[in-house]
Amino acid sequence: EIRNCDWSSDVCSSDLAGGATDESKSNLALTLTYLEEAKVLAPEQRDIRLLLAQVHFVSGNEEKGQALLDDQMNLFPRDTEGPLLSAQLAMKAAEFGRAQDELNKVFQIDPKNKDAAAINHILAIVSDGDVAGARSKALSLGYPREVLAQTLLETLHVDPRGAKEVLVLMDDELEEKPKRLEAYHLKAVALTLLGKDAEADTHVDKAISLVPEENKEEIRQALNSQVKQARLALKARDLIQEQTNENESDAEAAGVSIQP
């Protein structure tokens, strides 16, 4: 799974990027060795090439990773996994034009590819593209609104653009199905990420009202836990951004340029 960053800021990291321990670096090198050997032994295995490309990207060798993905397309021109991974990695690097090109390759091969439609939806949000059109395409291919909303929350984390899109999706969902507990739950999380705690609490109450009396307390605890996690994530984002601003101010005062 590709770990996505907070597209709303320059605070973006992968599990192994920056500050990696000697042990993690050693494990990564060992993983690369095993995957290289596996690729030689089973060159027809597309999954091995994809995993190897991803590990190269994580380790910082983007040129090698991209070369493997390009090789994948040449060897398997009808394969969609390679360009899907390329699109995700391009988005992670904020290369939105390249990400769109990769998604277009997938749609040429498989116009009804649901994974590409979901990624295209995210891309439209982070690149200020046609969000309504991307949303419509994903929904037309059978993606449930709640799944799209959950994907946005997991992928874009505390990016307010993702939270706002979740509200659009869940408002439409509740208009059709006014008793959808999960829709109220997702709205509560999105509202929390937008700093609207009072409204979020109201939606938690609405969700609780839909469950049997004997389950209310259990469900309330579960929903409140999710909302609390969102509040903590929002606080962490603000603290990181505050520290980043302070570092930039200190650097500017010292005449030093900080590269993002």
Please explain how this structure is put together:
The two termini are 25 Å apart. The protein is mainly alpha-helical and 260 residues long. Helices cover 73% and strands 0% of the residues. The radius of gyration is 21 Å and the shape is globular. It contains 12 helices and no strands. The protein has helices at residues 22-41, 46-58, 62-75, 81-92, 96-109, 114-126, 131-140, 145-156, 160-176, 181-193, 197-208, 216-254. Helix 3 (62-75) runs antiparallel to helix 4 and helix 11 (197-208) runs antiparallel to helix 12 (216-254).
Roughly what fraction of the amino acids lie in strands? under 5%
Q: State the helix count.
A: 12
Helical proportion? Answer: over 70%
User: For the terminal residues, how far apart are their CA atoms?
Assistant: 25 Å
Mean pLDDT: 83
Structural class: mainly alpha
What does the secondary structure layout of this molecule look like, with pairings?
Layout: H1 22-41, H2 46-58, H3 62-75, H4 81-92, H5 96-109, H6 114-126, H7 131-140, H8 145-156, H9 160-176, H10 181-193, H11 197-208, H12 216-254
